[in-house]
Hints:
The complex is a heterotrimer of chains A (522), B (322) and C (472). Chain A is an alpha/beta fold and 522 residues long.
Amino acid sequence: MQIRIAIQKNAYHDSVALMSLTGQINGLDGIEEAVVSMGTPMNKELLANVGMLTEEAAACGDNDLILAVKAESEEALEQAFQEIDGLLHAQRGNKKKGGAPVQTWGAAVQALPEANLAIISVPGEYAAREAEKALKQGMHVMIFSDNVTLAEEKRVKELAAGKGLLVMGPDCGTAIINGVGLCFANEVRRGSVGLVAASGTGLQEVTVQLHRLGLGVSQAIGTGGRDLHEEIGGIMMLEGIRALQADEKTEVIVLISKPPHPSVQERMLRELEGSAKPAVVCFLDGDAEALREAGFTAATTLLDTAQLAAGHLKAEPAGGTGAGERFRKLLDEADRQRSRLAAGQTDVRGLFCGGTLTAEALSILRGEGLAVRSNVAKKPEEKLQDVSVSTGHTLLDLGDDEFTRGRPHPMIEPGLRNERIVQEGRDPAAAVLYLDFELGYGSHADPAGVSIEAIREARRAAEAEGRYLPVVAYVCGTELDKQDKASQTRLLEEAGVLVAESNKEAALLAARLAGRSIKEEA
Amino acid sequence: MSEGSLVLQATEREEGIRLPSAAGGRWAGAYIHSVYKSTINIAGKDGQLLLSLAVRPAILAPGMAILDWEGDFTGLFSPHKPCNQIRIVGSSLQLSEWLICDLSAARLVSLAIPGPMAAAPPERLAELTEALRRFGKPGGAGRPWLRAAGWPAPLETLHERALYSQLMKLALLARSGGERELYGALTGFAGLGIGLTPSADDFITGFFGIMLAARPECRQWAEHCGAGWLARVQARTTFLGYEMLRQALAGKVNRAALAVITACLEGDGRRLEAAACGLAALGSTSGTDMLAGIAFGLDTLYVWKRRESNADQNCHSEERLP
Amino acid sequence: MGYSLFQEELNIINIGTSIFKDDLDVQRASSVQFSWKPPAGGSPALLQALDRVAEWEQIEAANRLAVQRIREAHPYLVDMGTALTSIPGMEPDLILHAGPPIAWKDMCGPMQGAIIGALLFEEKARNEAEARELAASGAVRFAPCNEYAAVGPMAGIISPSMPVHIIENREHGNKAYCTVNEGLGKVLRFGAFSGEVISRLNWIRDVFAPAIKRGLAESGGIDLKAITAQALHMGDECHNRNKAATSLFYKEISGHLLAAGLDGEGLRDTLAFIRNNDHYFLNLSMPACKAALDAGHGVEYSTIVTTMARNGVEFGIRVSGMQKDEWFTFAANKVQGLLFPGYTVDDAAPDLGDSAITETMGIGGFAMGGAPAIVQFVGGTVEDAVGYSAQMYEICAAENPQFTIPNLDFRGSALGIDIRKVLETGILPVINTGMAHQEAGVGQIGAGIVHPPQQCFEQALLAYASRYDGKE
Lengths: 522, 322, 472
C-alpha cells in the first residue's frame, strides 16, 4: 500500500472539476482511496483516521487543497498523480509530451524540449541537412535514409564526432538504445552484451540469437552500411566501440560488419586491443583465421558471434543440450524430403528480405561447397547477371536498390516477394526455397501470413509437374516481439515448411536439401 | 469609459452589495481574491469578501452580481494572478488593464430569508426527501442524510461515511438536546467534506436557512450569539465556506435555496419539486448538501413542534424519522 | 562519446515516416512526430539560399526590431481629407489601385470597372467608352495604393477627389489612408460604375466625409487599436467580419458627431450610412494595419513581410529588409470556399484587394480561430478555423499580446510573417477573403480561403540573399 499526498496552496479550481477529478482517480486501476478536499481541521482529522495524514498535510491551511491517494503500488500512484497533474494544470497552449505531429523544428523542440535523439527517414538528398540541424541542437542522430552522398556522410559524422554525438547511419536500419528498439529492431532482453554493427539485419540476428541463448543486450549501435569505407574511416564504429568500453553495463563488445578497408580495420582492431572488456569480431566473409592468429575472438557467422559472446560471459547457453537434438530432427526431415526430389532439382533458391542474412547464407553455402550467385555478391564470379531470372544456386536480397525503387522495402511489405516465390516454384531446377521472415519493430504485422498462399501455390505448381518443393525458412525474432513468433512459426510449419532457429541453421538445411552432407552442428 | 476595455455589465446584484464609489470606503484596497472558471471573488483589505462576480447562468447568491456574459474567467485573467488591486472607475470596477465591471445598471435582488413563516405541513419532509433521492448528487451530505432518514443509500467515500456519523450525532442532539445546544454543536461539524465550500458548510447553510425562516428563536440566537459562533467557525473552514455561513446567519441565502425554503413552508409539492431540482444543480455537491440541510431543518422543526406541544417526554431518542 | 545518452531517458524526434513513431509509442518511448516536407518545395537553389541565410546572425535582431515597431504602433483615426491634398505624392492624373503594379490592359474586369467609375466620378469622362479610352491612352497613370501609404479593399481605387480616412500612427508618426467603404451590393470596389454608384460617391464626398471630418475635429482621434482588440473578442476577425468593430466605432463616432453640433438630416443619414454597413470598419482596420506595418518596414536584414496585396491578376508581397517599393509577385490563386447560389467557380475573379494587409498584421484569417461565424462562410468547421490560426505561429516571428484570440485560450495572434519560415515549413499564410465576379460590376459571389503563391516568397528570399550576400 502506497500513499502519496500533494498540497496545492491557494489553489483555485472549481468544485465540479475537483469532483470529476476524484471520480477519475478512483476509477484508475490499483487505486484504493483518493481524497481531494480542502485542508480544514475536520478533513484533516478524516485523513488522520485512515492513516493518510502526513506532516505536510497537517501543516496546510483551510484554503489549501489536499490531494491524498492510496494505491496498491508505486506505479499506480505515479499514474494517478500524472492524471492529477494533467487535469489540474491544463495550461494554455501546452502540448502534451509528444502529442500532435509538428511541422517545424521549432515546434518539435518546443513539444519535446529534452529531445536527445532524432530519427531521420526523409528522402536521402535532404537527410544530411536535417541531420546537421539535429546535431546543432545537441541531439544524437539515427539516419535511416540512404542515398546520402559519401561527402555528406563524412561531413555529418565529422561534425558529430567533434560534438561528442552519435550518428547512426546513413542507411542504418537497426539500433537498440537504452532498451528502446529504433526503426527495425527486435524486442530482446536487456543484459551486458554491447554491439556495434555496420549491418542492420546482422545486428538483428545477433541480438535475437543472444536472447535465445539467455543473454541480453546493453546497447546495440548501428553505424550505417558505409561507415567502414576508406573515405569515412569507421568514425562511428570507433565512437561506438569507445562508448561501449566506457559503458558500465556492457561486459562484452561485439563488432559486426562486412570486412572493412584494411586501414580502417587496423584502427578498429587497435582500439579493441586496448580494451579491458572481451570482444568478439564478426567480419562476414572475412578472414577469421587471421583475426584469431592476431589474438582476437572472431566469428564468421552471426550465430557463432552470439555463442562466442556467451562464452566470454561464461554463460550457459539456454536450451542446453536439447538444441542438438532439435537440429538433428530437422536434418532427418530434410533428408526425407530430399528423397522426394525429382532429378534435375538441384538448386537452392533463396529469397531474402534481410541483406546481411543473404550475405551470411552466401558465405555458409559457399563454405559447404556450393557455387552460389547473388545480386549482392562482392566477388565478381558470384555476381548475378540478370536478377530477374535465377540460375543455379541463387540468393536474392529483395531489399536491394534495384528491387525497391519506388516500392516499399520487403521487410515492411513482404508480399512483394510472393511473385518471385511462385516463379521459383515453377522452375524445374529449384530444389529448395529458402526464405527469411523478420519480426520486431518496423516490420510487417504478419510476414508469414502474407506469404503462406504464395508458398502453397509454388508447391502446387511444382507438384503439378511432378516435383516436390521443400521450403526452408528462418523466422528472425523473439517470443517478445509483437508479431507472436510462435504463431508465425506454427503457420509455416503447418504449411510444411522447415523452420530453423537461426539463419546459419537454415542455410545448412538448404545445403543439405541440395545434396550436401554438411557438418552436423549448428 | 476607459479606452480599449471590455466592459462586462452586471444584470443582477444582491441588494447587500453597495456600489463602489471613488471615495473608497470598504472598496479601498480591494483586490481579486480568487479566480475560478465562472466566478471571481473580490475581497477587501480586511480580508472580508466584498463581492463575487459570476457569469451566466449562475445562481445568484448573497454578495454576488451576475454578469451579462458566458465566458471563462480563468482565460481572461491568466497569466495575471489574483491579488490584482482593483481600481474604481466611476461606479465601475476596473478588474484588469482592460476588463471593467459595471454594476450600476444591475437589478437589485433581495435574498433575505423571509419569516417568521408558519410551520410546514408534514408531507413536505417526505417530498423533500424524495426530491433529494431523485436529484441529489453523490459525494456530499446527500446520501448520508438519506441513510440517516432510513433510506438504503450507499456510502461510498470516506467523506460520506464521516458525514453520516456526524449527521447521526446531530439528529440525536436535535431530539434530545436544546436548541442552542444544537446550534452550538454545528461549529464542530463545519469544514467537513469535499468542495470549496465543504459539504458540512452547505448543509449548515441550508439548515439555518429554514430555521431562520420558521423560528423567531433562531433569529434571536443569531443576533446574540452569531458573532461568537462565526468566530469559532472561521478557523475551521475555508474562506468561501465561512463567508457563506456569515451571510446565512445574517439572514441571506442563494436564490435556489430560498425557493426551496419558501416552497417547503408555504408552497405546494410541485413547487417544492421544481425548486429542489434547481437547488441540486448548484455547484458539484453544494446544492445537494444544502437540500439535505434544509431537510434536516424541517425534520428538526417537526421534532421540536411535537416536543413543544406535548407536555410529556414521549419523544425519545430512538424515535424514527418519518 | 555516446555514453551520456546511455544515462538519459530517450526523448526522440522522429522525422519522416510515421511507422517508426508508432513502434516508439508501443514501447512507451517519449517521442514526437515531425511530419516533414521538403523545404522550399525541394528546390536546390532555394535550399542553398535558405542555408546561407540561416548563418546570418543579424536577422534575429532585425526581425525583433521590425516586430517591435509593428507591435508598438498605435493607429488613431484623426481626420478625413481629400486624396489629392492628403496623400503625399498624389497627383491630379494619378489613380491608385490595389495590389502590386499593373498596366491598364492587364487589369481584371472589376478593377477596370472601378477605374471607369472613378473617371466618371472625377468627371474626366462622360461615359464608359470615353473612360476606357482615357484609361488606355496613358494620360492617366496608375500606381499601387501601397506605394503611397494607402490601402484599398477589392479594386481599391483611389482617385484624386475621393475622400479618404486619415490614420495616424501616434507612436511613430507615420500616416495611412483609405477610402470610405460604400457598403455591399453594386459598389465601385467590385467594379460597378452605374449612376447609383456615382451618386453615392458624390454623397460621400459632399455630405458624409465633411460630417465625419467635423466630428473628428474635436474628438482627439479614435483609437483603432483598441477597437480592433475588443472586436477580436467579440467574434470579428476584422477582415471579413467587422460587425462588432463597426458597432464599437459607431458608438464612438456618434458621440463625436453630436458633440460637434451636427443635426438634422445630415446627421441622420451619416449615422445611418455607418449603421447599415457592417463592413464600415474594414476601411479603418486596413489602414490601421498599414500604418503599423509601414512602421516596421525598412529594417536592414529583416525577413518580415510588411505587405500582402493582390490586384486580381498577381499577388505581391513586400519584405521589411528590402526596398520600399520592391515587390515580389506571382500569378494570384483562386479563392477556395463557398459560392453564393447561382455562381460557379469559373465566374470568380482571382484574388483581389489590399485587404490581406490584415493577415499581414496577424488578424483576418490569422484570427479565424476566434471568429466561428466566418467559418461557415468559408465552408469549414470551427476546428478547421482554430487549426489555421494555430498553424500560423509556425511561420511567424512572434505573437501580439494586444490582439488575443479567445478560442486559442487568449493567445496573442501570430505576428511577423518570416519568409524563411514560410519556405522552410511549406506553410503559407492563410487569408480569408471574398470572391468577386470577374465581370465588372456584378459584385461579391462568395467567400473563402486563399493562400499567396509560394513563388512570391521564393523570389523574395533569392533577392534577399543576393542583396545581403557578402555584406555580413
